[in-house]
Structures are given as C-alpha cells and as structure tokens.
Amino acid sequence: MTASDQALDSLALAARAADSKGGEDLVALDVSAPLPFADVFLLVTGNSERNVVAIADAVEDALREAGAKTLHREGHDAGRWVLLDFGDLVVHVFHREERLYYGLERLWLDCPALPVAPLLAAGS
C-alpha cells in the first residue's frame, strides 16, 4: 500500500507551512503499510516552545484553509511535542530534545521516506 494522493497533497501544504515558520529537519514517512489510520507522518523540529507552537498553528491553518479538519490535537499548551491528526496525515512538531529522545525515525525505520525538499521548492 502507498500513501494516497490526498495525503501527499496535505503533506505538501503542511511541509510548506512548517518551513515558513522556521521548521527544521522535516522528514516525511509513508506509514500506510503498517498503520490502518494514517498514510503519512510528517516530523518537524522547532527551536523553542514558542516556535513549536507557531509551526503547529501554521500547519493547522494551512490545512484548514484547504478544507482539512483537525481530528485530534495534543501537546499544544506545553509546546514540546505537538501532534496534529488530520486523518491521512499526522504531523509531529517536536522541540529538539523531544525529537531526539523519542526517535520516531528509528521507530518507523522500515517505512519509506518521502522526499520533502521538492515540496518546499514547488511552493517557492
């Protein structure tokens, strides 16, 4: 199984929104094979709690403008790890320490990475 076109479109919007707020180390993983509830994870690093929240807000706003609904949001108040669930796309915005500690890239190592750089270049 591979990520749906809708998930990939949402990924592009989310990646550009995260990048616009200084999100770093963007990694997208196709989790459609092992997970029945999502196609893509987007992992993003922010430099501070305020930056993490700003990135999450920008992603949520961009996807809402495109018609997507946030099904679940966690961690927004703390600003250390914000999880945004849009159904086919789940966005994880981490503070640097949390990203290193939880290591989702290691946990989902068997899932193929999706190229993010072309998505950012396409938005320029």
UniProtKB/TrEMBL annotation:
NCBIfam families assigned to the protein according to its UniProt record, in alphabetical order: rsfS_iojap_ybeB
GO biological process, one term: cytosolic ribosome assembly
Cellular compartment(s): Cytoplasm
A Pfam short name: RsfS
Assembly description: Interacts with ribosomal protein uL14 (rplN).
Originating gene: rsfS
Protein's name according to its UniProt entry: Ribosomal silencing factor RsfS
Family: Belongs to the Iojap/RsfS family.
